[in-house]
Amino acid sequence: MLKGKKIVFIGPGVMAEALLNGVLARAGVAPEDLTVSGPRAERLRELAERYGVETSTDNRAAIGNAAVVVLCVKPQSLPAVLDGLQGGMPAEALVLSIVAGARLEDLTRTLGHPAAVRAMPNTPAQIGQGITVWAATPAAAPDQRETARAMLACLGTEVFAEDEDYLDMATAVSGTGPAYVFLFMEALVDAGVHLGFPRRIAEQLVVQTLKGSVAFYETSPSHLARLRNQVTSPAGTTAAALYFLEKAGSRPAISRAVWAAYERSVQLGRGQKRAAVGPE
Fold first, then answer.
1. pLDDT band at residue 279, thresholds of 50, 70 and 90?
2. Structural domains in the chain?
3. In 3-state terms, what secondary structure has residue 267?
């Protein structure tokens, strides 16, 4: 599906490298078919040495004859990048954007190019264990959609959504989700250290507990609440701990955090540079 197609990455960041590495390692794409473009010469040199790909500091020149143009820039940099590419997209190319909040309508209108896919991967994509939700414009042909699917599958699991609004929701749940998990892990490790464990052992306990819990859930047909209840004996240690978590408002806090991330994704799509986040 991807072999022999010229793929150009606009923006040489972490997620661009994850996708670049994924198509090289899992889709059999040749390094000479990949080009990375961006303003930082030292970063481009690093990627060229590591993967053997072509590089450019001229975005418009880089996209010539591209089959896929992947937009991997920060949201605040996107308007200038789109202006520079406007009118220069190859007619048969697919635009694949992983820019948070950037809506398909705005991308296609500014570029003057109708075939586009918007995707939201997450951090575990860097090791091929991510999940990516994606949507496409009606003008994206079936073979272009399959090209996008094949590329995103190199990052882990991919989920196609008919409704683009799901992308903002995915940003808040799975895109931002690893940060929630890492924060919880950090707090649990710190609590273990507070109890008296060496940090090395506390980290080992927390990491394996999360890994084992996820693996156990994946092999069980039970609802998450039922699994939680199986661990919670009446008047036991888990019941005491969960009482304090509920009393502290852990569920509403998580819900509000996810909603805040969702609202921020929508704001980014409207071109709002700063979030109005603060105490209520």
1. very low
2. 7-162 (3.40.50.720), 177-268 (1.10.3730.10)
3. helix
